[in-house]
Amino acid sequence: MIKGLVFDIRRFSVHDGPGIRTTVFLKGCPLDCSWCHNPEGRSTSPEKIPGKLVFEGKEYAREEIAGTMMDAEEVVQEVLKDRIFYETSGGGVTLSGGEPTFQAVFSLDILSRLKRTGIFTAIDTCGYTDHENMIKFADVTDLFLYDIKLMDEQAHIRHTGISNGTILSNLKFLTDSGKHVMIRYPVIPGINDNVGNLTSLSSFLLSLKNPPQEIHLLPYHALGASKYARLGRKNPMPEQFGISQEKLMSMSEQLQQKGFKVRVGG
Ligand code: SF4
After folding, report:
1. Predicted TM-score (pTM) of this structure
2. Per-residue pLDDT tens for 139-191?
3. Is the CB of residue 129 below 6 angstroms from any atom belonging to ligand 1?
4. Fewer CB under 10 Å: which end of the chain, C or N?
5. CATH code matching the domain that covers 3-264, chosen among 3.40.50.2300, 3.30.300.180, 3.20.20.70, 3.40.50.300
């Protein structure tokens, strides 16, 4: 059986789709976003994360390993433990990362098994995968939480390392196919918290045959900073800055005026 690399399974999540969910975080991501707050999710191999445990005022060194090899059935058996919560809350299981389509065969295996047991499936994706893969994901995924970061191609390359061409064409494919898509927009101060990018985003979405109706604005937070330190990596965004409520509200209003339902936060 195909195995894949999982770095976390988080139960009782309420930010990764409707209802109570379990979110499975898979390792590996083809992007290199400067604001990434899951640095332990990006490489395709297990990583040691040094840490410490404080007990009765004394510090003890401890090490975590980010990344466990599991097969799809093991993942399914683990997440089915909370089936009752999915059924009573309208929830289900979300694959996240990293980027779940990066381990496409493994992710598709998990999603197919979950679909066969009647579980509502979602993936939180950056959308950067082969079109052929996306067709397969469309078959076994009920909801796409689809990250859009920057509309200008050169800015996208500058801040994530890749073009957004594939991401936008996969989004068009999913919406044309009638799939349920919610847009997730990480709001990064100084990078995409501007009127111009939002205007391009709403124009693009409204040009689609079936525009997504809901957009989630996800304000940048610096919670990843300690992970960079523990991994011994340089944090590309060392400044501890946030985004004001006023700015978020004005971004939200701009999108609502175009007819989108907007939620601040996941
Ligand atoms: S797509 Fe997500 S996981 Fe990948 S580098 Fe960007 S923020 Fe990090």
Report:
1. 0.93
2. 999 999 999 999 999 999 999 999 999 999 999 999 999 999 999 999 999 99
3. no
4. N
5. 3.20.20.70
